[in-house]
């Protein structure tokens, strides 16, 4: 990671250089003849993956593909009921009405688009090839761009896509169905674009390994295909089976997991470590703790901390502030995220083998592929246990044979959903999305909800600047929502 740290020393400068390269109104008078005007695309790739390093000792990595805004976003973890708020429970009570997307578009997606632009522009592509072959850079950036856009559209629904990142201020929102169609196209084309040239420098995800990138692209196609089970199962089946049967394979072992690894340096540490640096605004919810205890699941101590008596006490989910004060006064000890989850060097998991084996199990139940669903389901549990370092052969054998775990023909989709929810922890973004899609696990809203619907949010409201800064596009998109720009409206694939 030493080279990563060194690259980041210049990221602030690179941002400025990118802006300089696009400004020509003042002729040559403000151009330093000794400064580069073409970005270092390897540094942009690292920044797109990790995010912009904080400038304060207690700051956190926000952007990137596995930071505070994506896999480790606190709010979706509240919606998925992984965590409960310990002091200020507004988000647990669904007070959220909108969320901002500027850091997605202005940082991570813009970095990736810049890589694409400079590798396709005839005047710059030869220069930036020193950081990796043009094709390898384009393939990597396109796959990551598809991943980030999938996160964005799954949170808001219709969003600026086809005409985004083109330096326009008025940008229409594209229907999510059209976005999904293009994401499938991009993932297929980008995966085929890798060549035998130089690997892309700055790749802290797969170190330029094209085979692993192709597995990641296929895995993402499979995940997105399952999103369509209720709205377009024919397309979902076609896309899933094509990715599943692709010669490159998909993420089926922990060795291929897509993870961002952090360091013990504060600027590049696990964002959850920063979140709990001197604070404890969240506890592990009683919903998760109780579920794991009911299954005698060995992942519980890997996910949460016990009390001084060795018991696991989940923090009640969805209490008002007054009730929280009463509870914590009477029960000062409750489960916090484990030392493992909060370790500075704990990696952030983007796509894992357990997640994909559960996808395989579901696709088999749906009749999309020829595979044994029970075997895939059991293999997924084992992969998750091994991922968290809790695998024990005897305990595993007993666990998968337990009536609360072993699926039947009538409840296999529910049990796949429950195990997916457990295995995805602490990736609340994906857990919330899968809960919206499947209804599993059977999460209940807090009885103290303050939002209009009194239900768990189904999407984010659009940024509050859009009605004034992008009025026509915003109003057109809101007009396509069943209940207006509210968290109770559903995205395209989210059907009852």
UniProtKB/TrEMBL annotation:
The keyword Disulfide bond does not apply. Residues 1-21 form the signal peptide. InterPro entries: SusD-like_2, TPR-like_helical_dom_sf. It comes from the Bacteria. Keywords: Lipoprotein, Signal. Pfam families: SusD-like_2. This is SusD/RagB family nutrient-binding outer membrane lipoprotein. It comes from Spirosoma sordidisoli.
